[in-house]
């Protein structure tokens, strides 16, 4: 029954730019630019959106472009509402992923205990979870008890396709299944849903149902019956799901289903997970916004003519800094941005940094290392640094064999560039936050030497191994090449985003960055003189399923061994995490 229904749904894929030009013509071009700012076009219904903050609540201390903290963000939203929104409406939305990426979240036990307090100071109208709230039981339990059932967010925490398993093993929704409400000024009737992408690595305290399957359930039919098209002005679908999804098309499947019940409603999407700035046109009445990562961006979206047949959409990606915040909120001076509540949150962040010792200096990074703005072969590429100088420092806690060794990591385990300057306790979490265990398998060299190439083969879908942006593999180089490459003396480097409205979405014109594709995995190889036929193949436990698959696939082709590889062949290797090894390496530079 389900399958038959499924086959009948036409999957709407990403709309080519220009398809709806008649409707959207000029949507981004109007509006006055001041300096190299591009202004926001405030409309009747306005949104500010964050996503994938990953603990970055204390600003980017080494990057002025993203130099505002969570307190400044709170001041901004307050002032923006007061000075720019007037009798229109503003909704504040977050789409999850709040752990793994910064000391403020990751240096505490349990992870996120202090960052959650700070994050929840923002007055979100709609919020939800990402996959990083579901990797560990601790994260899931914290999210549920600190945020989902928090009175402050009553009804506002929405998770349409995720369930929580209580201490008593009861299965309950991870928040509201949906939210129906009226905006405070223009009284728009809003029906909101939230979907997490089909994440199947959740711990035992959570269950994720694929969005399209969830929409076949009775509760959704009941919602449709209670809130038919005539009773709804705008449907909001916000969730931890990319708005451009060239591989799975999950959001397009959701859109196709919703359109069968709501053919004439405005449907506005807010997405996340792939860490990019993005804006997509779904049809004449529907667009999607995605607001980057790591508190580098506040996404802005407005809809005018909301109740007409030709609503007008406008979007901007606001750099997360006080200049941008002051400019767009319309205060005269940067100092006028501060509110008492925002300032209190900023000082609380300062106290947490102190308590967690995040600014204590471990060493000095002599020059910057980049994930994708330098090629892999460059000495300025971080993966090159890791495979050449850092991973070889790994010492096993379980074996002291002198066998040849391969150490393979997924590139997605590295989360940020490493900047020249002080290497602090925070830097370790920023670059490599995961405490993934090292495992190993003893295998013939003839298999080991082909695993990386197999895992990096473009024909194989390995979407969860590379950095989040690289999930857009085919799209990204096109996107970055399609907008003019800006190189103006005096401008700082930053985003030049191409989206379905064009190249002018960023609130500030920046000098463009180069982009070089990143493979799924990289490795260091140590072949001993007089090497024997069998080697130690070391990898993160997180990627064990992919390594086993690769070994079996390669062996099928090469017929090197007569058995199938399984988890039972993998053993604990032990040793320090990549972040700790990097710290040791940087420390050793001071001594040399
Ligand atoms: N233990 C882990 C967990 C995750 N990763 C990497 O992070 C990616 C997911 O990050 P998002 O912010 O996009 O949700 C995942 O695909 C892995 O690349 C990891 O390396 N180790
Ligand atoms: Zn994320
Ligand atoms: Zn995610």
Quick structural gist:
The chain is of the alpha/beta class.
Structure description:
This protein is an alpha/beta fold. The protein has two domains: 41-355, Purple Acid Phosphatase, chain A, domain 2; 361-474 and 517-589, 5'-Nucleotidase, C-terminal domain (5'-nucleotidase,  domain 2, Alpha-Beta Complex), CATH 3.90.780.10. It has 17 helices and 23 strands. The chain has helices at 2-7, 21-24, 70-85, 103-106, 113-119, 137-148, 211-214, 218-226, 250-261, 322-329, 340-355, 382-390, 425-431, 445-456, 475-482, 544-558, 578-591, and strands spanning 33-34, 37-38, 45-50, 89-94, 126-127, 162-165, 171-173, 178-182, 189-193, 206-208, 234-238, 266-271, 277-283, 286-291, 297-304, 312-319, 361-365, 405-410, 421-424, 438-444, 521-526, 534-540, 571-572. The strands form six sheets. It has a six-stranded mixed sheet, with no helix packed on it. A five-stranded mixed sheet has the order 5-4-3-15-16, with helices on one face. The N and C termini lie far apart (68 Å). Mean pLDDT is 92; it is low at 1-23 and 25-34. One zinc ion binds at residues 52, 54, 97, 130, 273, 275, 468. GO terms for molecular function: hydrolase activity. InterPro entries: 5'-Nucleotdase_C_sf, 5_nucleotidase/apyrase, Calcineurin-like_PHP, Metallo-depent_PP-like, Nucleosidase_C, Pesterase_C1039, YHR202W_N. Residues 368-548 form the Putative 5'-nucleotidase C-terminal domain. This is LAFE_0A00606g1_1. Residues 46-276 form the Calcineurin-like phosphoesterase domain.
């Amino acid at each position: 029954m389900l399958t038959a229904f499924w086959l009948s749904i036409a999957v709407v894929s990403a709309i080519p730019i220009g398809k709806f030009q008649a409707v959207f013509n000029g949507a981004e071009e109007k509006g006055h630019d001041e300096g190299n700012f591009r202004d926001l076009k405030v409309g009747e219904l306005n949104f500010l959106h964050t996503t994938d903050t990953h603990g970055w609540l204390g600003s980017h201390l080494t990057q002025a472009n993203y130099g505002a903290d969570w307190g400044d963000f709170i001041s901004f939203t307050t002032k923006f509402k007061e000075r720019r929104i007037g009798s229109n409406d503003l909704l504040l939305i977050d789409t999850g992923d709040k752990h793994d990426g910064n000391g403020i979240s990751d240096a505490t036990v349990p992870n996120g205990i202090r960052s959650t307090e700070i994050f929840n100071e923002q007055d979100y109208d709609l919020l939800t979870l990402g996959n990083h709230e579901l990797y560990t039981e601790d994260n899931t339990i914290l999210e549920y008890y600190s945020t989902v059932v928090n009175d402050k967010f009553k009804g506002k925490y929405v998770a349409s396709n995720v369930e929580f398993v209580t201490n008593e093993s009861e299965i309950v929704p991870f928040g509201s299944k949906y939210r129906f409400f009226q905006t405070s000024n223009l009284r728009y009737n809003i029906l909101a849903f939230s979907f997490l992408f089909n994440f199947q690595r959740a711990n035992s305290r959570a269950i994720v149902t694929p969005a399209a399957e969830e929409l076949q359930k009775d509760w959704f039919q009941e919602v449709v019956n209670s809130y038919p098209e005539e009773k709804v002005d705008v449907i909001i679908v916000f969730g931890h799901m990319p708005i451009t999804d060239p591989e799975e098309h999950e959001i397009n499947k959701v859109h196709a289903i919703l359109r069968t019940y709501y053919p004439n409603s405005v449907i506005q999407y807010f997405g996340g997970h792939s860490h990019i700035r993005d804006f997509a046109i779904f049809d004449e009445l529907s667009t999607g916004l995605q607001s980057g990562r790591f508190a580098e961006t506040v996404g802005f979206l407005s809809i005018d003519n909301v109740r007409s047949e030709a609503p007008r959409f406008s979007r901007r990606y606001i750099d997360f800094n006080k200049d941008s915040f002051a400019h767009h909120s319309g205060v005269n001076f940067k100092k006028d941005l501060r509110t008492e509540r925002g300032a209190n949150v900023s000082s609380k962040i300062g106290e947490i940094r102190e308590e967690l010792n995040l600014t204590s200096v471990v060493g000095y990074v002599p020059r910057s290392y980049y994930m994708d703005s330098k090629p892999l072969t460059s000495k300025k590429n971080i993966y090159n640094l890791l495979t050449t100088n850092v991973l070889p420092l790994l010492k096993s806690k379980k074996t002291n064999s002198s066998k040849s060794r391969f150490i393979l990591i997924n590139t997605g385990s590295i989360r940020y560039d490493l900047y020249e300057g002080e290497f602090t306790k925070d830097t370790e979490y920023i670059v490599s936050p995961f405490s993934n265990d090292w495992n190993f398998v003893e295998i013939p060299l003839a298999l080991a030497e082909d695993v990386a190439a197999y895992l990096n083969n473009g024909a194989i879908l390995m979407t969860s191994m590379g950095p989040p942006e690289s999930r857009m593999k085919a799209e990204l180089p096109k996107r970055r090449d399609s907008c003019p490459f800006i190189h103006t003396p005096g401008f700082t480097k930053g985003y030049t985003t191409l989206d379905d409205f064009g190249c002018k979405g960023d609130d500030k014109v920046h000098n463009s960055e180069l982009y070089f594709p990143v493979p799924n995995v990289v490795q260091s190889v140590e072949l001993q003189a007089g090497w024997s036929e069998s080697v130690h193949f070391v990898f993160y436990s997180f990627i064990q399923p992919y390594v086993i698959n690769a070994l079996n696939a390669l062996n099928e082709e090469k017929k090197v061994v007569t058995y199938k590889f399984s988890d039972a062949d993998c053993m604990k290797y032990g040793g320090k995490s990549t972040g700790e090894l990097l710290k040791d390496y940087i420390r050793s530079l001071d001594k040399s």
